[in-house]
Write a structure and sequence with these properties.
- By secondary structure, the chain is α+β, with helices and mostly antiparallel strands.
- It has one domain.
- Helices cover 31% and strands 29% of the residues.
- The protein has a 12-stranded antiparallel beta sheet with strand order 1-12-11-10-9-8-7-6-5-4-3-2.
- The chain is globular.
- Keywords: Signal.
- This is Phospholipid scramblase.
Amino acid sequence: MTWILLGMVLMAFLYVMTGVCTHLDLPESRETLAERYAHALSDRWPNGVLEVFQNSLPALSTKFLGQTCDTPLLVPLAPLEAKDLLNRHSAWSVDILTSSKALLFTATLIEDEHAKPNMLKIITRGEVVASVDKRLTIFNGKGEPFGRLVQEPSGEWALEEASSGRSRWAVSAKQEGDSHDLSQLFMMVTWRPKGQLLATAIQGPRRDGKRSDYLKVTNGPGVDMILALASFLGVVAFDIAPRLADRKRSLRGAVDFLEEQASGIASQLLGRLKH
């Protein structure tokens, strides 16, 4: 009888172990950028978030870690863009609101002596909680380097963590259509290697067919809101917005050149007619 009971216990143990091994996560190939956008556009946060947490998500601060009751955060777009083609100053300051329109953060971009973007600071209640320099190095509230966003050949920015050297936090951006402003901007943060969606920044709803006037920033459960915000605003301030401004000025320059050429031709024709 004892041997029978021992045999039954052994069989049960082997059955449980077989089930556990069957359900272990196997390494997955990295998803393509298009597949990650599909995840974001479906408006569904991925399953298996606990697995991400167990891999230690990076966080600048625990104050807003996983806070989602205030999301989506509303970031006005207009201050982030060049106010006009003649204004080459890049500095701006913008209030970031909660979904209920309460002030939560203030983001300020400081320019250097050449009117180029130099340092971005994110402030709440008079305290700097994060900053980003022109090399896209992210600093915590104490001014200590946390990591650097490095653009890869794919176009994504990978956060090289100062503490570990790993690059698991990836930021990507997409402009819908042939847009010359930030109203068609869509950004997201994913977690490598499996591409879980952590945070998004998308244009707000349109009113009366007009362009969107703010970005909606949303983070998933357990994701540091401040790090997501610093990543999005850093890429916009030091990469996307300057490129859009240069493109606008190039187009304006081309138009001015054509106008000058047309004016010259018209003057020549008038001169010939007079003679």
